[in-house]
Amino acid sequence: GGLPTPGEFYDVGLQHPYHDEISRVVTAELMSGYDDGLFKPEGTVTRAQFAKIAVCLYNLSHPAAPILVPNVTTKPFDDVPVSSKTTGDISDWIAAAKEAGLVSGVTPATFSPYEEIQRDQMATMLCRALGWDDEAAALPAGTPSFSDVPSSSPHWAAAVYLKSNGVLLGYGESDEGSGALLGAKEAIKRMHVAVVLCRVLDL
Asked: Helix, strand or coil for residue 150?
């Protein structure tokens, strides 16, 4: 009876390969489970959910000057619904992340909040949340990259910088032998987001 202890979930037993990482990021309040005591480790993460993670990560690393999350009454993007009676709904988190420069839209007016975040988009949001934009932008052309993140990609600098820091490892060598694959356009599972966030916490 009752819900599991904080940081523990019915679907993430002690034998789960990422039990420790999931418990750690939930305890750090970077991620949370669902009301029914489940974490859904194989589930994906939406762009709205990752905007919240980005704000929480920024606030964890900037405790003296956190990003505030006020209850907004106007839409931060045209496709983000506002719930003005609720503080902490997705419009509040996305508005806070946008105001702080952690996220941008897929177009100037739209955010696609319910779309699964892709790995390359996650790299960019992570870099911004950690304040590593300038360092990433200063990387020289030709810095070893993921073979599926071309230098023309808007996410190239962030992905390469996180790779150089060991935050993003990617998958084995590609067929051409040109380095690891990020799986740039793939959705990322919740359990793998937890692993990536733990690498950040360990830096």
From this structure: coil
